[in-house]
Amino acid sequence: MRLAWLERTRRPSAGRVLAVASVLPALAVASWLLAGLPLLLAGWFRPLPTVILGAAVLVVLCRVALTRLPDLDATARQVGGVFGVALFSLVFNLVMHGEQLIVRRDPATYAQYAIWIARHGSLPIPRQAEAFGGDDPALWFRSMGFYDADGAVVPQFLPGPPMLYAAGEWLGGLLLTPPVLGALATLVLAGAVARLAGARWAALAALTFAISMPILYTSRATFSEIASLILIFGGVALLHGALRDGAGRWERVVAGLVFGLAVLVRIDALRDVLPVLAFGGLLLALRRGFSLLAGLAAGVGLGFVAAWAFAGPYLEYLSRSVGPLLIICAVVVVLTAVGTAMAGRLSGLRLPRRLPEIGAGLVALVMLGLAVRPWVQTVRREPITEEDWLTYEFLRVTQKNNGLPVDGERLYFEDSLYWVIWYVGVPVVVFATLAAVVLVRRLLREGAPFEWLLPLAVIGWTTVTTLLKPEITPDHPWASRRLVPVVIPGLIMLAVWGLAWTRERLGRGGRGTRWFGGAAVVLLLAPVAFTSIGTAFTPIERGERAAVENLCASIPSDASVLIVERVTAERFTQVVRGTCGIPTAQVRRPRSGDTPSSGDVLRLIEGVRRAGRTPVLLAAEPGQLSGYGPPRHVIALDTRQDERSLVKPPDGTWRLAVNVWMSLP
């Protein structure tokens, strides 16, 4: 009896600590999303109920996923190195975090989305037309990142990331939440590496990951990619344990659920988790149950519910890419079902003798094809939609600033493998390719190592499809975010496995390997650090929080704000509505100009007065307001923004000036 008590209360091993700590972030994120979504659907997304329900869900998930979680073969020094890297990531990015609150690109859209649901607990955002004297054809309630649909304002994107960032808003640190997620992502990747490549490589992989420019970039602003990474690689780590002998079906349900919830964070994650569907079919064929598929279906289903309830206009905007993706998903579902049903017959088939070599050769050919792609293809798109034309004009301006030939139809997607090389270096790509070749050959020849089958499928499928069609405006560092959820962490994980395999082969050949560790550190870290150094120590868009606070303080509490100029309207409509808590709309402009007719403005001013409120006008220049009342300069911000580099890695930042003038007619 006493020995059993001592066994239960002894200090956990270093391997156990790493095993638990590296999946806890994924379980915590999943729990928060599982608790937050039904509350948001009900209009009760508030701190107390969300924390209570989230904690209860986390206890259940931990009880299922952690009770029989196997220890990792790790020393205290190795685990200490991993935690040291995660702490470095946290502190460094906290110091260098950005302040993207003025809506110019996605991070500020996510931030304003989070601010709204944190303060109001519900969606959609009401127009508040009554604050302007009622609906008027000259009133526009939409703005960049926020659609006007079905009589309300609907934020762009799925609600997963805003629900996470709302927790930071409740704690008074919205803009400090991304560095926390970045540090947790470092832990998650290190845990996946320790399971699949060995704990001795975990800290090196974590450090390579943490200092890569795209990871620094997305760990300093309210993006969605880091949260998606936590769920996908957390799912990899959870499933690794759930496939061991003696593991129960509920562990696989949790792993599938974590994978599926990535769709609640990013609709693109539907592509990333397709290999999980096929793998679940394989497990079913092997008589290991449908638990992984059940968990995956539940997670993806919640993502679809959120998309249907909160992101209809966004999905319509993405229809050109989401439609084909859904068709691919349907095809994979059918093939998985057919393959599972015919598993008994297919098991007797004799595979070609040279199949392992053919498979390995195909991996090498795919990477070679991506490498030579810029010499045989130039990816272009003729603009059709309004968004296409905006991208077209943006590229023309950016090409002029980069000193490049002006061609707004060119997308630069053919250079996508070189984007990866910019950010992780040639050695990572080479060793990752070597690892993929060796692993594919082993899997096809021996059926082992089975634990690598799903991670390799997820990394390979997502890397190839992402590099073929990044589907993002190709200026950097902006476009680098496409590489964050799977491509960069996946290639780093494969690369350290390739290094471990190379070290083992050298040892077998009788060659000394004492020098190998130092060489591996240099090979992995030097290229990454060389690229990152140009922007790592320059925070962007600092001063925006103070600028927004000053703007809010300048507006009377009983005001209704009319924005009479295009750029200010796109950037500040939701900022004033959500952060300042003031009813806001922009005044309709003719297609040929940036400012509306004075007749519309004067009529709307009178409407505001009839509603018993104070009319306030905003614009970018004093001359745009001088006809309505004396202008006052309320924002004069001079800060730094992302570089917009098209054909080389970014190595600096650009100046950003933001001016807002206010008038009380």
From TrEMBL:
| Swiss-Prot/TrEMBL keywords | Membrane, Transmembrane, Transmembrane helix
Mark the transmembrane ranges: 17-41, 47-66, 78-96, 170-194, 201-217, 223-243, 297-315, 321-343, 355-376, 420-440, 452-468, 483-503, 515-537
Residue ranges that the Swiss-Prot or TrEMBL entry lists as coiled coil: none
Please give the name of this protein. Glycosyltransferase RgtA/B/C/D-like domain-containing protein
Organism lineage: Bacteria, Bacillati, Actinomycetota, Actinomycetes, Streptosporangiales
